[in-house]
Amino acid sequence: MAKVNALDGPALVAVADNVSLRAIPAYRLLAARIDERHSILLKDTLTMEMATGGADDILTVLLRAATRIGALICDGIGDAILVRCEPGAGAALRLSYNILQGSGARIFKTDYVACPSCGRTLFNLQSTTQKIREATGHLKGVRIAVMGCIVNGPGEMADADFGYVGGAPNKINLYVGKTAVKFNIPEAEAVDRLIDLINEHGKWVDPPEKLAMVED
Ligand code: SF4
């Protein structure tokens, strides 16, 4: 590290493979000791534990990459990432983008925040979230929160642009940021009203297939 810090210009640095430290503390140590002018490349593994293809193994690779790289990005560490354990190039690229999106470093698709649901949930959270995803999944960079109730939902919507929140049984309140703007919308029409709201705020674009049909 002393040699790198003595360099004239900036460099891209990473923790060496096979060091006798776990990845997260190793990178924290690197970030604490390396000059700020250098950029840090985060690696998902320091030992090349390559996935062999089984479903469990792929899940392990995914979780390991997400927890290590994601945790470090959330700590403010890292300028580039490298996923090495996933053998498929396309899957590694998708995983890399999803880690960047999940940790808030780079938003490249619609972002959703949903509560885990509980006894207070006022609608079917899973099917409604799926319906909202189908309607809005093409809105790159828009953050949408789906919350089961108004008791805790609005406080847990993070920095969502729009919120779909259960206000009463079968009634939905819609939010712009943390402000409720539409109240007691019948659940059957609430997704359409959410789209109207996104449109009113200039964040709606037609999905690609609809644009193609208009051009035809
Ligand atoms: S937002 Fe409401 S419904 Fe969702 S988990 Fe929290 S308390 Fe339960």
The percent range for helix content is: 25-40%
The total count of strands amounts to 8
Structural class: alpha/beta
Q: What ligands are attached or bound here? A: iron/sulfur cluster
Q: What fraction of the residues are assigned to beta strands by DSSP? A: 15-25%
- What is the typical, i.e. mean, pLDDT? 91
Largest sheet: 5 strands, mixed
Parts with pLDDT < 50 across at least 5 consecutive residues? none
What's the helix count? 7
Q: What is the 3D form?
A: elongated
Distance between the termini: 60 Å
- Work out the count of structural domains: 2
Gyration radius, rounded? 22 Å
> What spatial order of strands do you see in the largest sheet?
4-5-6-7-8
What are the secondary-structure elements, in order, as H or E?
Answer: HEHEHEHEHEEEEHH
Mind sketching the topology for me?
Blueprint: H1 2-5, E1 12-13, H2 23-33, E2 39-43, H3 55-74, E3 80-82, H4 89-102, E4 111-114, H5 125-136, E5 143-147, E6 162-168, E7 171-176, E8 179-186, H6 187-200, H7 208-215
Parallel strand pairs: 1-2, 2-3, 4-5, 5-6
Antiparallel strand pairs: 6-7, 7-8
Helix pairs in contact: 2-3, 3-4
Bound molecules: iron/sulfur cluster.
Iron/sulfur cluster (SF4) is lined by residues 115-118, 120-121, 147-149, 151-153, 156.
Task: Please tell me about this protein's structure.
The longest helix has 20 residues, at 55-74. A hairpin with a 2-residue loop joins strand 6 and strand 7. The chain has 216 residues and is of the alpha/beta class. It is elongated. The protein has two domains: 2-102, no CATH class; 111-210, Sulfite Reductase Hemoprotein, domain 1, CATH 3.30.413. The termini are far apart. It has seven helices and eight strands. The mean pLDDT is 91. Helix 2 (23-33) packs parallel to helix 3 (55-74) and helix 3 runs parallel beside helix 4. It has a five-stranded mixed β-sheet with strand order 4-5-6-7-8, covered by helices on one side. The structure holds iron/sulfur cluster. Iron/sulfur cluster binds next to loops.
